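Hey all, quick one. A colleague (J.T.) asked me to put the fe (ii) ion job into the tracker so the inputs and the structure tokens live in one place instead of scattered across chat threads. No bug as far as I know, just bookkeeping. Sequence used:
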Amino acid sequence: MNRPTGYEPLYTLKPVAPDVWLADGGWIRFYGLPFPTRMTVVRLTDGGLWVHSPIADRQGLKDAVVGLGPVRHLVAPNWIHYAWIPEWQARFPAAITWGCPGVQARARSRGVALALDHVLGDDPPPDWEGQIDQRLAESGLHREVVFFHRRSRTLILTDLIENFEPAKMPCWMRPLLWLGRIRDPDGRMPLDMAISFQRRKAHLRALVRCMIDWQPERVILAHGRWYDRDGTAELRRAFRDVL
Ligand SMILES: [Fe+2]
């Protein structure tokens, strides 16, 4: 699928805050549905780079990333975001790969041998403790680790909120955005995921309260328009039925 995503320029590092960048990528299909992709890069205080949900490498994206510093960490932040981890590992063999619980099994079920160095949990490892906070969200179906970069007050989500802009999506998908509650500006947790959290409401509520307590200024999402301001208010809006 080569048509524009609406987030052009793609495969280009875009500054978000000091030491935080994102890059928008092309489409990926998931159960037949097209999703525009996005990755986030954080430069840690030692100068090493932390790469969240790396996207395809086109137009020299990896070379541009190298220009920011050495790639030390590759992060597969939820159980279904791993597609380009192997090719980033091939380019950066010294990088440590961190994965959400379940991502390795999921990759294996799709015929991908995903090698992880560490599995992520609720507590940040010493590698980024004090700089990036994290919490594991787990519904039984969906598993995702959320991250908060303290210095820039940037919350980095993957699929926990999706916020598709209808004008950027194929016409036939627009009713699905409304049904799935993932339509800009009122992007929320996708309905199927929200249903999967029904039996773990207290867990989800605690997670949302933790994210609100972090008081993020901005919230980066993997799909659709991310929230570049009023992040805490956006969390209260998106999770209003959980609080
Ligand atoms: Fe996703």
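Adding what we noticed when we looked at it: DSSP finds seven helices and eleven strands in the chain. Helices lie at 61-66, 85-91, 103-109, 174-180, 191-196, 201-214, 231-238.
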